[in-house]
Amino acid sequence: MDSFFKISERGSSVGQEIRAGITTFLAMAYIIVVNPGILEAAGVPFTAAVTATCLGAAITTLLMGLVANRPIALASGMGINATVAYVLAPMAGWQVAMAVVFVEGIAILLLVLCGLREAIMDAIPVSLRHGISIGLGLFIAMIGLKNGGMIVANESTMVAIGDVQSPVFLVGAISLALTIILWALKVKGALLLAIVIAAVIGVPLGVSSMPSSVVDTLDFASFAAPFQATEDGVLAIVKVFTTPALLVFAFSLMMSDFFDTMGTAMAVAKQGDFLTEDGNVEDIKKVLIVDSASAAVGGFCGASSCTSFIESASGAADGARTGLSMVVTAVLFLASAFLAPLIGMVSSAATCGALVFVGFLMMSEAKEVDWDDLLEGVPSFMVAAGIPFTYSISSGIGLGFITYVVVALCTGNIKKVKPLMWVAVLAFVIYFLTL
Fold first, then answer.
1. What dihedral do alpha carbons 32, 33, 34, 37 form, nearest 10°?
2. What are residue 73's phi and psi, to 5 degrees?
3. Which residues contact 204 (CB under 8 A, 6 or more apart)?
4. Is 152 in a helix, a strand, or coil?
5. What per-residue confidence (pLDDT) applies to 212?
6. Residue 20: per-residue pLDDT
7. What is the pLDDT of residue 149?
8. Other Cβ atoms within 10 Å of 159 Cβ, number
9. Is 48 exposed, middle or buried (0-12, 13-18, 19+ CB in 10 A)?
10. What is the arithmetic mean of pLDDT over 68-85?
11. 133, 155, 227, 302: which could join 365 in a potential S-S bond, CB 3.0 to 4.6 Å?
């Protein structure tokens, strides 16, 4: 085990990997409850959506652990699942929506195998990579504060502080305070302990609900969705290739997957000590292959696109260094397929502290950017601001890419723009026009 996962080589231990794997799972366990609720609106039976969500996450996370040997967990992606449920499904049916996801996953896998996805990552300037890390830190913190009820939507100011007297706010505040205190005291597993304690405190406050049952049965009704027949008897996947509008949606989803994963991998690599000095992610091709294949797996299972989760950074910050932690996370997702009611008691508010603290840790990247240099500073700022303000990793990266080319043109540095950056910028322009 030690030699296969390179545990000692990476300065970790079995116990540390197990603990960090649990931390990652708890930070993203909300998807077990949230994703089925969204997919149910698309017409996917709720019990089938639960099974698909848990097994999709278990299969893809296990692949990441065993094939790439990196601490990046995967599950049904938020945002893409909303597109599937509220845009694609009403237009063509949920089976066809899953077929679009499946096709997108196969397409992006081919791009990885051809080396294009990795080559575009290599073409990104180092300053922009730092900007992406900063933006992701702010994005993770924003998600954590939202989960903890500390910030809420506001029609007048767009965002505002939440109700400080609400139970959710209280649990979120306790989670954050516990995380800081335990980390300051150098307690091992600080992030995990804070999540568990906050979840328990949330029970009497009504934030964490006690399950009515413990074990649930599996429902495979959504599996092989792309190859299920629609109401008119045509296979769902056939409809994708015969409907131009659906192919446009497949391209849009591919762009989102393409750059979301790039940003997530960099964020987790920073916390997990596998980001090189020049901003490259070690073993990135294996990571990208698994992530790309996982999108197709998610579509096949009927779980929406399975993608790398930014919450994995919490596990990396808690000590995850190898794929063993992802084996642990995968096993917990597998168990959740049967124990979904029990896992559901871990509220998103309980994860507030872990996510906000990881965001804090990632802000160290800010000192790596030369803010006095327009070509470094302005595009990096656009990425850092764009990711949280648009609530989209890919949109934020796109704004940064386009800004970099514009500033390069204005400052006479056009030769610094690599050919594949031009390709990426053109793709982003098309992507924004199709939103």
1. 120
2. -90, 155
3. none
4. strand
5. 66
6. 95
7. 95
8. 13
9. buried
10. 88
11. 133
